[in-house]
Amino acid sequence: MAALGITMALLVWMAVLLLVSIWKQVYSSWNLPPGPFPLPFFGNLFQLEFKNIPKSLDKLAERFGPVFTLYLGPRRTVVLHGYKAVKEALLDHKNELSGRGDIPAFREYRDKGIIFNNGPTWKDVRRFSLTTLRDYGMGKKANEERIQKEMHFLLAELRKTQGQPFDPTFLIGCAPFNVIADILFHKHFDYNDKICQRLMHLFNENFYLLSTTWLEFYNNFSSYLHYLPGNHRKVIKNVSEIKEYVTVKVKEHQQSLDPNCPRDFTDCLLVEMEKEKHSVEPLYTLDNIAVTVADILFAGTETTSTTLRYGLLILMKYPEIEDKIHEEIDRVIGPRRTPATKDRLEMPYTDAVVHEIQRFINLVPNNLPHEATRDTTFRGYVIPKGTIIIPTLSPILYDSQEFPDPEKFKPEHFLDEQGRFKYSDYFKPFSTGKRVCVGEGLARMELFLLLTAILQNFNLRPLVDPKDIDLSPKTIGFGRIPPHYKLCVIPRA
Ligand code: HEM
């Protein structure tokens, strides 16, 4: 009798809990954008194809419109789909919707540095970094010279391959790595340097693992999955190792610092730390500096390097496009002069190809998650503070009105009838608004100059028939990761 009573009481208790949780969900979503009905705990996970989330979001947008609510497990999320919704949210509501959504795999960096900072220090660190980077590296002229210097090292390494097959991942990646290392540490790494290779391996492995289904799950159910074995542990370990390396570099800089003569970006941050020495709540601590530097090191290396690698594969699939670039380079630059940014104005075809590579590969399809920093009224809905915002980039880059046949690689997407470069405001691989990529200018300059230099000096040779080259990404998640491949580069006469 007593056992029956206890069972009944438990059942009633569970029913009450379930009702309260459903009521809470309904109440808090009263004025939210529409969306599929969420299950308790799992949310809308079963409505998503985890191997291709952008595709699932396209399908949901067809049903619910360009602004919809989705529960990723327990996380309430509002998805912005398409040019108008993303621009309106990130530009007209830039203060409210520019927080950073939590990415549990990077919790060690949370609320420090720039990328993963959702705290009060983000604005100041970002602003100071942008101005300093302009002075110590991101000023247009200084950057151009830095990239041109690196170009020669890259070309020398490519020559060493002597027309034999090689994996471009780390060889090509060394160039963007060194450009950033020069800005941050005033240091150039040899292409075989063990530390440089190790760091690039960590960036590369993390970008890949973050784009796998397990990590997508982990980032939404981290409290349940954290202690289980799995690749999230590897990502978290790699993130720590990167920070450890950067911390050592920052401390080395601190020991040899001359506040009157900062050598690089790291020195500039340390000078600020010195100035704040007596402050009760200093903005720049060693930890915050290390995360800021680590942010720029990996964001600035892996993205540009993956874009170059994907770009070369695309050009091998379309040798007629490669030929047209060779022709334009020969006409505008010739065989010997070092490519310069001013050449871009006279090279609309190459410029269009570089844009099309970025559009087509759609490197960060779902953007990085944002967060509502306060209750926000958007298109008549109320998005509560703390809601994750996904301002997707994929539907903008693949908009079929702006880019007819978006699934096809067509440099003509960025060319007018007369073959002149055609600007598109839908070109948003770097996002937009207050969180827009800090390295956009640098990345675009690197992509144009490095690709031009490679093609000025070499013909690309695939190891298979171009028709058999499959451009589909190896995995789609946080990033769209290119398939692994090898190629040969043959010096041009
Ligand atoms: C092809 C190259 C690149 C692509 C496609 C790219 C793309 C992006 C995207 C989509 C974001 C998120 C924007 C948002 O949250 O709305 C971002 C943020 C960021 N990127 Fe890049 N990026 C590239 C290169 C670089 C480079 C070279 C650097 C460094 C010099 C860099 C540093 C950053 C930083 C620090 C942020 C965080 C901004 C913030 O949270 O305030 N990126 N990038």
From TrEMBL:
Binding site for heme: 437
Gene3D superfamilies: Cytochrome P450 (1.10.630.10)
Keywords: Endoplasmic reticulum, Fatty acid metabolism, Heme, Iron, Lipid metabolism, Membrane, Metal-binding, Microsome, Mitochondrion, Mitochondrion inner membrane, Monooxygenase, NADP, Oxidoreductase, Signal
Listed pathway(s): Lipid metabolism; fatty acid metabolism
A Pfam family: p450
GO biological process per UniProt: 4-nitrophenol metabolic process; epoxygenase P450 pathway; lipid hydroxylation; monoterpenoid metabolic process; steroid metabolic process; xenobiotic metabolic process
GO cellular component: endoplasmic reticulum membrane; mitochondrial inner membrane
One term of GO molecular function: 4-nitrophenol 2-monooxygenase activity
Regulation: The omega-1 hydroxylase activity is stimulated by cytochrome b5.
UniProt catalytic activity: an organic molecule + reduced [NADPH--hemoprotein reductase] + O2 = an alcohol + oxidized [NADPH--hemoprotein reductase] + H2O + H(+); (4Z,7Z,10Z,13Z,16Z,19Z)-docosahexaenoate + reduced [NADPH--hemoprotein reductase] + O2 = 21-hydroxy-(4Z,7Z,10Z,13Z,16Z,19Z)-docosahexaenoate + oxidized [NADPH--hemoprotein reductase] + H2O + H(+); (5Z,8Z,11Z)-eicosatrienoate + reduced [NADPH--hemoprotein reductase] + O2 = 19-hydroxy-(5Z,8Z,11Z)-eicosatrienoate + oxidized [NADPH--hemoprotein reductase] + H2O + H(+); (5Z,8Z,11Z,14Z,17Z)-eicosapentaenoate + reduced [NADPH--hemoprotein reductase] + O2 = 19-hydroxy-(5Z,8Z,11Z,14Z,17Z)-eicosapentaenoate + oxidized [NADPH--hemoprotein reductase] + H2O + H(+)
Topology in membrane: Peripheral membrane protein
InterPro entries, alphabetized: Cyt_P450 (IPR001128), Cyt_P450_CS (IPR017972), Cyt_P450_E_grp-I (IPR002401), Cyt_P450_E_grp-I_CYP2E-like (IPR008070), Cyt_P450_sf (IPR036396), Cytochrome_P450_fam2 (IPR050182)
Role noted for this protein: A cytochrome P450 monooxygenase involved in the metabolism of fatty acids. Mechanistically, uses molecular oxygen inserting one oxygen atom into a substrate, and reducing the second into a water molecule, with two electrons provided by NADPH via cytochrome P450 reductase (NADPH--hemoprotein reductase). Catalyzes the hydroxylation of carbon-hydrogen bonds. Hydroxylates fatty acids specifically at the omega-1 position displaying the highest catalytic activity for saturated fatty acids. May be involved in the oxidative metabolism of xenobiotics.
Protein name (record): Cytochrome P450 2E1
Gene source species: Otolemur garnettii
Lineage: Eukaryota, Metazoa, Chordata, Craniata, Vertebrata
